[in-house]
């Protein structure tokens, strides 16, 4: 028999079983819901709120994502706006409430270190242990100087720390106000951006 005639037989010889079944593809890992991190952040925030506010905030835990994002935005705005506004009011009026100044001293070191790293308001970092605040005329003030006796940098640090303390005291009011305004904010502001990120799902 000629070799040319044997070639078709060789091709049909059972060397490897022929099958049309495709190997099973690996099962894809379940996708993480896009709102998991947002809800986690919300839950951490709500867990730190006073217990008497829980009746107002518990409904947010199962709220739509648009409402959760609206609440978080409002919560940040109600912290930033009073902090800036009160700091400016204390600075230009040259007055800070005595009953809040002592509480503001608890946060003074935090703002001293932050302003020192940034080099804002003449506050300069001098090392790991503290900062030196330069006054308006460039004279360095000591670490323990207070707003009423220190230079411009020291005074601003104390004013911002006091404004921050007032903002912390107003936390219950901020929470209730944010919850109250959340539906409106979600409908009017966040609702316009639903198509961009699918926030309404």
UniProtKB/TrEMBL annotation:
<protein>
    <submittedName>
        <fullName>Uncharacterized protein</fullName>
    </submittedName>
</protein>
<dbReference type="GO" id="GO:0005739">
    <property type="term" value="C:mitochondrion"/>
</dbReference>
<feature type="compositionally biased region" description="Low complexity">
    <location>
        <begin position="1"/>
        <end position="22"/>
    </location>
</feature>
<dbReference type="InterPro" id="IPR018811">
    <property type="entry name" value="MRX11"/>
</dbReference>
<feature type="compositionally biased region" description="Pro residues">
    <location>
        <begin position="23"/>
        <end position="33"/>
    </location>
</feature>
<dbReference type="Pfam" id="PF10306">
    <property type="entry name" value="FLILHELTA"/>
</dbReference>
<feature type="region of interest" description="Disordered">
    <location>
        <begin position="1"/>
        <end position="40"/>
    </location>
</feature>
